[in-house]
Design goal:
Shape: globular
CATH topology of the largest domain: Spore Coat Polysaccharide Biosynthesis Protein SpsA, Chain A
Helix content: 25-40%
Structural class: alpha+beta
Radius of gyration: 31 Å
Length: 531
């Protein structure tokens, strides 16, 4: 009778939770309510006035009507990180209705810093220096006036440092007159002509300002086909803004200056089928888990007997890890996870590197060929798989990451579970910004991003934050690696397991401050939200 009573209570509780879930999902939230009443001097109106003021000088007397659902999506440079408000608390409510949490990274880092104002000034100086180093004039907005008689290239013109090119596409389209004239002005180079045309006067050859004129428009246009530009100021990556003008019109276009990208090609000895051993190296980091590492190696050898395995080891008393196609690198004791990643990845010479933790193990579903296939056939730089726990639950950890501009105090970091879209031709694969801790990437691209060696015990998501804008990332749910059980009874734990848990999960105050500094100072975030 007592058992039946408990079952009834359980059913009632579950029913109530389901009804609440349905009510919560079906009821309109506050975000769906839009105030459509007219407002004077609204923030959106000021935003639009500012954005169009730089590109349109006239028409200020013509009124306009704001389309708020579109205008509100424009960047306002005033981002904030807000957490969801508490609504109700019930058992399992966090699982049914996950809330967005927020953290003020400025307070978290500065409150424990001995000189908060000094570190803020230092961060501002570093950011200013970064802006100067990364500034590129080619990113400046240049609007071509309508009905301009000048014809010129708007983008795609490049020159190597201190080299010469012919400027393509120059021309003049105007009515016949007694004399036609154009001029070119540069700041980082000089102009000349590769050939001369009769009845066209060229003045300023070899100088930063050159003037071309003549009575025949066709001859002048022919001469413009031979105009050259020579870069005279070395810079590995910048752009020269060129002024192209007549007596009554002027226009601007950019010529990019820089070295070409050197390709990184891998000789994998082409075959009709993927030679995984020639294409992929497996990298891992081990610490106090030699038993797990042995299981990983044994499982890899079952399916890929000749693939190279690179192991970074920061144990205090390292044990030998030997065998064919194994590279074992000893590090200083307790150097850390990301330092181990850097070491392991730095030794990879194949086109792709596969990262696995030392407590994973391969199964028949761990098909590296599928990862290689998607990397070979798409523009992805990195593709993650899925991790199956002993409980049968399979995780993919797909996240989107966005940075919202926030002004002088720093930017806002927003992390959400989910992805952008399914990849055509690979129905089980999607595009995301962050994936699970089992991924294969193009070795040179992963090395370019690197891993922050100061993050010793935790820091998986930090790699993908650093990779934002650099790596094109995907995730496939049908490529699965298994995870060794983490369930250990207290009386069955070995000394090495206890030591590992102490190092892995008990962060010191110093380690915690490093994580806060990483976000606040290195990445210049003032706050973050996640779900």
């Amino acid at each position: 009778m007592r058992i039946t009573y408990k079952k009834c209570l359980s059913l009632i509780l579950i029913s109530v939770l389901l009804l609440l879930a349905l009510f919560y999902a079906s009821s309109p939230g506050t975000s769906s309510v839009v105030d459509i009443r007219p407002r004077q001097d609204s923030p959106l109106k000021k935003l639009l006035d500012g954005k169009i003021g730089d590109t349109i000088s006239g028409y200020r007397d013509i009124p306009y009507h704001i389309k708020e659902e579109v205008a509100c999506r424009l960047a306002q440079n005033t981002c904030v990180c807000l957490a969801d408000k508490d609504t109700f608390q019930l058992p399992l409510s966090n699982l049914l209705f996950p809330r967005v949490w927020a953290q003020n990274l400025s307070n978290a880092f500065l409150e424990s810093h001995p000189d908060p104002e000094g570190i803020k000034r230092h961060r501002a100086m570093e950011y200013s220096s970064f802006q100067r180093r990364s500034y590129n004039p080619a990113n400046e907005l240049i609007v071509t006036e309508a009905n301009n008689p000048l014809q010129y290239p708007t983008q795609g013109v490049e020159v190597r440092p201190l080299k010469t090119i012919i400027i393509p596409g120059l021309g003049l389209k105007e009515e016949a007159r007694s004399n036609h004239m154009v001029s070119l002005t540069a700041t980082l180079g000089t102009f000349d002509v590769a050939a001369t045309v009769d009845k066209v006067s060229v003045k300023g050859e070899g100088a930063k300002h050159m003037r071309l004129s003549g009575p025949l428009l066709s001859a002048l246009n022919r001469q413009l086909q031979f105009v050259t530009y020579t870069n005279t100021v070395f810079h590995p990556k910048t752009a020269d803004t060129v002024q192209f003008a007549t007596e009554s019109h002027q226009s601007f276009f950019t010529i990019k200056v820089g070295h070409g990208t050197i390709p990184a090609l891998y000789n994998s000895r082409y075959q009709k089928e993927y030679n995984i051993s020639a294409l992929v190296t497996i990298a891992t980091k081990t610490f106090l888990r030699y038993d797990k590492l042995k299981d990983l190696i044994d499982s890899i050898r079952q399916y890929y007997p000749t693939i190279t395995i690179v192991i970074a080891d920061d144990n205090e008393h390292p044990q030998p890890v030997t065998g064919p196609h194994i590279e074992h690198y000893i590090m200083p004791f307790g150097k850390g996870w990301f330092a181990g990643r850097n070491l392991a990845v730095s030794q990879v010479t194949t086109k792709y590197v596969l990262w696995v933790d030392d407590d994973f193990f391969f199964t028949a579903n761990t098909k590296l060929e599928k990862m290689v296939d998607i990397l070979e056939k798409t523009t992805l730089d990195l593709v993650g798989g899925a991790v199956r726990e002993v409980t049968g639950y399979t995780a993919t950890f797909r996240h989107t990451i966005s940075v919202e501009e926030g002004g002088e105090e720093g930017d806002c970091l927003h992390i959400r579970p989910g992805y952008y879209h399914v990849i055509d031709g690979f129905p089980n694969c999607v595009v995301a910004d962050g994936v699970i801790n089992f991924f294969m990437g193009r070795t040179d691209k992963v090395q370019q991003v690197g891993f922050n060696p100061r993050l010793a015990r935790q820091g998986h998501l930090e790699f993908f934050i650093d990779a934002l804008g650099s790596l094109h990332i995907g995730s496939c749910s049908d490529i699965i690696v298994s995870h060794a059980s983490k369930i250990k009874l207290p009386w069955s734990e070995t000394d090495s397991q206890k030591a590992y848990n102490k190092f892995r999960y008990k962060l010191s105050s110093g380690d915690a401050n490093i994580h806060k500094e990483n976000f606040y100072f290195k990445n210049r975030f003032k706050c973050m939200t996640s779900q």
